[in-house]
Amino acid sequence: MTDLHDAFLSTPPAAVVETEKHLTFISGGTSFAINILKIKEIIEYRRLTQVPMMPTSMCGVISLRGAVIPVIDLQARFALAGSAVSERTCIVIVEIDGPDHVGAQVLGIMVDAVSEVLDIHRQDIAPPPQLNTDVSTDFLEGIAQVNGRFVMLLDVDKVLSIEEISALADPAGLV
What we know:
Layout: H1 2-10, E1 19-27, E2 30-35, E3 39-44, E4 58-64, E5 67-73, H2 74-77, E6 90-97, E7 104-111, E8 113-121, E9 125-126, E10 140-146, E11 149-154, H3 156-159, H4 162-169
Parallel strand pairs: 2-11, 5-7
Antiparallel strand pairs: 1-2, 1-8, 3-6, 4-5, 6-7, 9-10, 10-11
C-alpha cells in the first residue's frame, strides 16, 4: 500500500492547459483574432464622418453613446487596398493602451466580417515568423493553428498605436 501511495504522490499532475478567448474575424481574406479582454463591443457598420488630413488607415469617426470614436480600416493599416463595405462589415470597438500621459483609448476597427469567439490554447500559438526583411511582424502576438487554418493573433496595442498612426499621417513629423 505504501508503494502505491508513494507512486501516486510522485506522479506529476496533468499539465494545466492555458486557454485564452479570442474574437476571430476576417479582413482582406485573412483570419485575425484579438484577445476578448481588449474588446468592448461589436457594432454594425454605420456611415463614418471623414476627418481631413488623416492617414488613409483612419477611415473616419463615429459617435457611440455621445463619444467620438476614431475608426481604423485594418486592411489600409496593413498597406493593402481599403476595405469594401458589405452587409457583413462590422466595427469592433477595442480599448488599447495609450501613451502614459493619455491612458487607455477607445478605437474602432473596420473588419469584413466577425467570425466567432474561440478558446485558443497557449501551446497552439507559434511566435510570429522572422522574415529577415524590412517587413515587421511586431504587431502580431503569434499565429495559431485552429481547426486546420491559421489565425493571426493581433497585438492591438501595437497595430493601433496612436503615435504610429499619427506618424503615418505626417511622415516628416510636422504635425
